[in-house]
Amino acid sequence: MSLFFEDLTLGESMVLGAYKFEREAIVAFGRLYDPQPFHIDEATAKASIYGSLIASGWHTCAAFMRCFIDWIERQRREAAARGEDLPPVGVAASIGALRWPAPVRPDDVVTYSTTILSKRAIHRQGWGIVTRRNTGVNQNGVEVLDFTNVIMTGRRQV
Amino acid sequence: MDLLHFEDFPVGEVAEYGATVVDAEAIKDFARAFDPQIFHLDETAARETMTGGLIASGWHVAAMMMRMSCEYFLNRSTCQGAPGVDEISWIKPVRPSDRLGVRRTTLGARLSKSRPGIGLVEFQFDVINQVDEVVMTQRNSIMFRSRVALPGATQ
């Protein structure tokens, strides 16, 4: 396993990690960033089309990011332990086709995975562009998040 | 209070709203919880990275945009959530003390086939900073209740 552009294999799929959506965290995120009644108020949420409190979709995305970064850092630590060079951390340029197929409710545990869809070298020295498909699945096997993202990814220096 | 319904978003309408001043501590708080990369966490260390200084997580920018949209129109509407987002592009970095606003353009509107009484309004959201640069764009549809009574509906 490596994080360099050259070492990423098309179709390769990895489990990144899992995130538990505590009720308090759902409400705290909602109050700060998405204060709609079905994210912050139990009673109103019951009367919505969702039937209970649900996490903001942005919380579901942010939790993906946390699992992705923690996974990358684990890879980096393992590479460092082997004495290998590490690529620089790249930034995401865009995302697409994002769907929240089912809501996330209090105490749900979502496991996030990523698959390499495509990659291409770019002229900007030291970088390639990698497209990934990312998904989140809850403890009952129901998909709650699905999107693609395009990330700048470090190349081996030549 | 009369809530905004599906019919209250004419295609082609442009609305501008919001004035969020980006706070360095909020950037770091969000990053510690959700995106702990060095250029979101530490001003000094961030200067040595490709970003040249502390920048907000892209997901934080999306979340700040959501907050402005809730305050401007979603929380006085019949919003029933969103099935997803077609596209987000992060175009420019967002830094501490930037002042962000939103330009919302209504692209389309249609009644849901699968959810009776619900309409989907497609919006383009441009997040704009204090020097009129577009820092992020987002395109997605949001569900609202329709005013049109359904045949056989008891409401």
Outline of the structure:
The complex is a heterodimer of chains A (158) and B (155). By secondary structure, chain A is α+β, with helices and mostly antiparallel strands.
Shape of chain A: elongated
| Mean pLDDT value of chain B | 93
The main sheet of chain B orders its strands as 1-3-4-5-2
- The number of distinct structural domains of chain B comes to 1
Helix content of chain B: 10-25%
Ranges of chain A with pLDDT <50 over ≥5 residues? Answer: none
The mean pLDDT of chain A is 91
Uncertain segments of chain B are: none
Shape of chain B: elongated
* Proportion of residues in β-strands of chain B: 25-35%
* Total number of strands of chain A: 5
Counted up, domains of chain A total 1
Note the main attributes of this structure.
heterodimer; A: 158 residues; alpha+beta; Thiol Ester Dehydrase, Chain A; 4 helices; 29% helix; B: alpha+beta; five-stranded antiparallel β-sheet; 5 strands; 22% helix
Write the layout of secondary structure elements.
The complex is a heterodimer of chains A (158) and B (155).
Chain A: E1 13-20, H1 23-33, H2 37-40, H3 42-47, H4 57-81, E2 92-99, E3 109-121, E4 127-137, E5 143-154
Antiparallel strand pairs in A: 1-3, 2-5, 3-4, 4-5
Chain B: E1 14-21, H1 24-34, H2 38-41, H3 43-46, H4 58-72, E2 84-90, E3 99-111, E4 118-128, E5 134-145
